[in-house]
């Protein structure tokens, strides 16, 4: 039993570098729970929230949906990933992507379910041993929405 849904816990979505950043879109968690039920097999979050440092280490896009997006008050500068608690920022967008693995569900089947049955996901692909799911289409270099 998870603390977010029946099958997912907060710790699964926390940045893997140890900084403990975890800023989730509740709709992402709901969509993943729906995917878990429809796939009828265990799903594990391999990558949820990432701080900017960890995102760089894993080769993520500078505006990855794995990172929360913040806007600094005053100058409006956009900041991705981790912000110090003392920074005067406001949340623009929480984490809206996850990379999933499963020991019992074929990844192509899982991606098909995510694309066809879970309408929340706008971007799904099978990576090297994982399925990436995200709220919207792939991020373009000029698009940081």
Task: Give the tags.
disordered C terminus; single chain; 23% helix; four-stranded antiparallel beta sheet; 145 residues; Muramoyl-pentapeptide Carboxypeptidase, domain 2
In angstroms, what separates the terminal alpha carbons?
33 Å
* Number of individual domains: 1
Structural shape? elongated
Q: CATH fold name, please?
A: Muramoyl-pentapeptide Carboxypeptidase, domain 2
What does this structure look like?
The protein is of the alpha+beta class. It has one domain (10-134): Muramoyl-pentapeptide Carboxypeptidase, domain 2 (2-Layer Sandwich), CATH 3.30.1380.10. Helix content is 23%, strand content 20%. It contains 4 helices and 7 strands, in the order H-H-E-H-E-E-E-E-H-E-E. It has helices at residues 10-13, 26-39, 52-57, 107-116, and strands at residues 44-47, 69-72, 78-80, 89-93, 97-101, 123-126, 131-134. The strands form 2 sheets. It has a 4-stranded antiparallel sheet with strand order 1-5-7-6, with helices on one face. Strand 2 and strand 3 (78-80) form a beta hairpin. Residues 141-145 have low confidence and may be disordered.
């Amino acid at each position: 039993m998870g603390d977010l849904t029946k099958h997912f816990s907060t710790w699964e979505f926390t940045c893997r570098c140890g900084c403990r950043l975890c800023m989730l879109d509740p709709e992402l968690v709901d969509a993943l729970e729906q995917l878990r039920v429809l796939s009828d097999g265990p799903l594990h979050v391999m990558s949820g929230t990432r701080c900017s440092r960890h995102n760089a280490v894993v080769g993520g896009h500078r505006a990855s949906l794995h990172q929360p997006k913040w806007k600094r008050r005053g100058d409006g500068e956009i900041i991705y990933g981790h912000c110090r608690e003392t920074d005067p920022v406001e949340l623009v967008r929480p984490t809206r992507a996850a990379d999933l693995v499963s020991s019992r569900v074929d990844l192509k089947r899982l991606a098909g379910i995510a694309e066809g049955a879970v309408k929340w996901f706008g971007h799904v692909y099978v990576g090297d041993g994982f399925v990436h799911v995200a709220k919207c289409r792939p991020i373009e270099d000029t698009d940081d929405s």
